[in-house]
Amino acid sequence: MMSEFTHLFKPIKVGSLTLRNRMITTSMSPGHGYTTDDNKPTQVFLNYLEERSKGGYALICQSVAFYPRQSRHPLPNAYAPEHLPHLRAMAEAVHKHGGLLVGQALALHDWRRNTNEPEGHFGPSDIQILKGVGPFQTMTKEDIKTYATQVANCGKILQAAGWDGIELLAGVGGVLSRFLSKATNNRTDEYGGSVENRCRFAMEVVQAVKEACGQEFPVLIRWSPVDYVKNGNEIEDAKQIVPYLEKAGVAWHNLAVGWHESSVPLTTKEIPDGHWSWIAAEIKKVATIPVVTGYRETDPLVMEKVLAEGKADLIGGVRYCIADPEFPNKVREGRLEDIQMCITCCRCLDEMAAGHGLEYCSVNPRLGPELLTPVEPVARPKKVMVVGSGPGGLAAALTAAKRGHQVTLYERGPRVGGCLVMSAIFSPTYERLTRYYKAQLSKTPNIQVKLNTLVTPELVRSEKPEAVIIAVGGHPVDLKAPGVERGDVVRSHDFLEMLNGKPPQKPGLINKVMWNGGAVFLRLFYSPKLVRSLMGMPWPFGKRVAIIGGGLPGCELGQELLAHQRKMAILEERKKIGYDVGASDRFHVVSKFKKSPDVQMEPSTKVLAITAEGVKFRREDSTEAIYPADTVAVTLGFEKNLELADRLKGKVPILKVIGDCEDPKRMADATKKGYRAAMEL
């Protein structure tokens, strides 16, 4: 298989370094649980690094503190001799498996001159792009020298600890990024105005590191060629910046697209794999050193194509290595079906942006505390029954099987996947996860799958399992309002039931024919792509749709209906539409609704009745109105579903309840709980 990925596995020189392949991890600060309160790496962090080096990544970049930080998100300290022992431990964890380790001197917006002053936001000026990011203090020339000295000192510490280089952060709206950009640099001294002047600060930092560490010590740089902020740099501006950075002595151009203040989607699942490689291709036209493309690079076939077409020299990313620490080795060995490919749910980014540690991923539960315990065979295998084949049940079944248990996985529908079956309609990347699970089930001999099987206490009693893990999903929350039984009312679970071959019973001849016919057809020919294409039909959604429930299910449905030219109103009792949508997606989802003339958003609204005229509702100011809907979609989310669990209490030796049936949350929560349940057996 390696011959099919000749570009991905061709070694490359980056300055004085030789990388074993073209896959690197861009900088990340995994936060709490990985770094102690006194800013040292924990064993969790060391295990995380070692797993990924052993998994074949050529170079791992990790954020480090180059000054005494006060920020809530902890980083390993790297600015004093007393930090050498823990930094050496990090380097050893990576080097023992042939990987390389560089440290990114992290200063996003925040920086600190000295320990006598608090940390604050700094830049070339006090210009703010967004009200929530800032205010900014204008750096003096003395500040600029201090910053460069601090980074150079960090380089010396990393070099002494055996790290392989240092990377400057000059992108995503950080301190150096703001100097490079026309949007925020309005200085009239030698650090502002011309391209050369705007590059001067970054160049001086590079030169300071070179003077401190020697010319051979690699100084890398991550910067944003296109800012995607008002009046910011565009690609032609970036091409003028390249020669100055190279003249300073950087060893690569690691490209980060946009700023944290950008209003366009950058990393979300609506951006296809490889999309941002056009920026790297433009930079390569003027660059003389390697160019790293990043953001939305998660598919090895796309990665190889990008390299083969000469658009970039290296592939960078964080989420693909979070999702699967063995990604490079699996590609090299031809085990593509075994890759836990990132589904771009952005849960990892949301957690870290909120100041939490890296613990949740929808496809990889082995993060955080789980990294301390290997998956090893048990002394005495058990007979395990897993009820429900959604993400939680699948994670439980596969983990239990890896530990040697004899597992039977039960699914009441005709196919495995549970909620993934329907979620993949709205999020095509989720199909990666269903494909992965199906491949693993077929390759795991101690898992038996039973489809179209409803588990009852009687079945459990007859099977005599030693452990039962219940992962049957939550109950859909029903709307309590007059008219909810009308034929033009559709619940989210109606579709899942139809996909499972059990059509809902709706009044009206057309409904009976279509729901029953659809159930038979999709039972035989279902695919998420097919269902997406069928949503353009005039049934079951008419031209005007009232979506009752503005959480994640309602927002996903709304986005899909917009793609099929429907008009809609989204009604939600809470104050915000998209209240439970992940932070990485929420702004873009809600913004799309706000900008569309076909969407009427009605937060803080109570539905009063559904009538032939439409949906009658009351707003917060007590005014009442009717939305003239042809179809009413009820997407109020889920609530606990403990019926089977309650009936099995005391009836089996071990009973575990996981996922939405126990506590409705996001997919990563179910995956983690399934894994933990299996590890506890």
Count of helix runs:
22
Uncertain stretches: none
N→C terminal distance: 37 Å
As a percent range, the share of helical residues equals: 25-40%
Let me know the average pLDDT. 94
The number of domains: 3
Q: Kindly identify the CATH topology of the largest domain.
A: TIM Barrel
Q: Kindly report the spatial arrangement of strands forming the biggest sheet.
A: 3-4-5-9-10-11-12-13
Rounded to an integer, what's the Rg over CA atoms?
Answer: 27 Å
Keywords: Flavoprotein, FMN, Iron, Iron-sulfur, Metal-binding, Oxidoreductase
Domain FAD/NAD(P)-binding: 382-648
InterPro entries: Aldolase_TIM, FAD/NAD-bd_sf, FAD/NAD-binding_dom, NADH:flavin_oxidoreductase, OxRdtase_FMN_N
Protein name: NADH:flavin oxidoreductase/NADH oxidase
Secondary-structure blueprint:
Elements lengths: L11 E3 L2 E3 L3 E3 L17 H12 L4 E6 L19 H12 L4 E6 L4 E2 L8 E4 L13 E2 L2 H20 L4 E6 L4 H6 L14 H19 L5 E5 L11 H14 L4 E3 L21 H8 L6 E3 L6 H9 L5 E4 L1 H5 L3 H6 L14 H7 L29 E5 L3 H12 L3 E5 L9 H7 L4 H12 L4 E4 L6 H7 L3 E4 L4 E2 L12 E3 H8 L9 H17 L2 H7 L9 E5 L3 H12 L3 E5 L11 H13 L3 E4 L3 E6 L2 E5 L5 E4 L3 E4 L3 E2 L3 H6 L5 E4 L9 H13 L2
Parallel strand pairs: 3-4, 3-13, 4-5, 5-9, 7-8, 9-10, 10-11, 11-12, 12-13, 14-15, 14-17, 15-16, 17-28, 19-26, 20-21, 20-26, 21-22
Antiparallel strand pairs: 1-2, 6-7, 18-27, 23-24, 24-25
Can I get a quick summary?
The protein is an alpha/beta fold. It has 3 domains: 2-342, TIM Barrel (Alpha-Beta Barrel), CATH 3.20.20.70; 378-474 and 640-679, Rossmann fold (3-Layer(aba) Sandwich); 489-637, FAD/NAD(P)-binding domain (3-Layer(bba) Sandwich), CATH 3.50.50.
